[in-house]
C-alpha cells in the first residue's frame, strides 16, 4: 500500500492529544498510526505503546489501552478492526470479544490489548513486556 492509498483511509480520524507512548513514532500513514489515532478518537484510556523490535518477532508494536466498561472495550475493538480492514491492512484477528474484559486484536505488525481497568491492573502487561526498559531493581527488592 502506498502513501496515496493510505491517506484517504485515514481521512476523518483525529490525531492529537498527548499520550504516554514509550519509544518513537514510526513513519506517518502506517498501521501503527491508524491504531493510535483510532484509540484516541474512541476515547480509549491510558494508551501505552511498547516497541517490540529486538524483543520479540511476534510484532513491531504492542499497544495496551483501557475502556471504561465491557461495552466500550467491545466497541473500541470492533471499530478498530473495521478501520484497519477498510484502510487495506487486511483482516484482524479478534479474541475475547464476547466477554470484552480483555480483547486482543492481532493486526500483524501491531498487536492491541484492550482491557477493563481492573483486568488490566491484574495482568500488568506493561511490566511484563517493558522488562528491558525498567532498569535495575532497587536494592531493597533484590
What characterizes the major β-sheet?
A: 5 strands, mixed
Oligomeric composition of the shown chains: single chain
CATH architecture type? 2-Layer Sandwich
Our count of helices gives: 5
SSE pattern: HHEEHEEEHH
Structural class: alpha+beta
Strand order of the largest sheet: 1-2-5-4-3
Number of E-state strands: 5
By CATH reckoning, the class would read Alpha Beta
Helix share of residues? Answer: 25-40%
Backbone CA Rg? 15 Å
The gross shape turns out to be globular
Looking at the structure, the CATH topology is Beta Polymerase, domain 2
Give the total of domains. Answer: 1
Describe the protein in words.
The protein has a 5-stranded mixed beta sheet. 34% of the residues lie in helices and 19% in strands. It is globular and about 30 Å long. It has 142 residues and is α+β, with helices and mostly antiparallel strands. It has a single domain (20-129), classed as 2-Layer Sandwich (Beta Polymerase, domain 2). The termini are far apart.
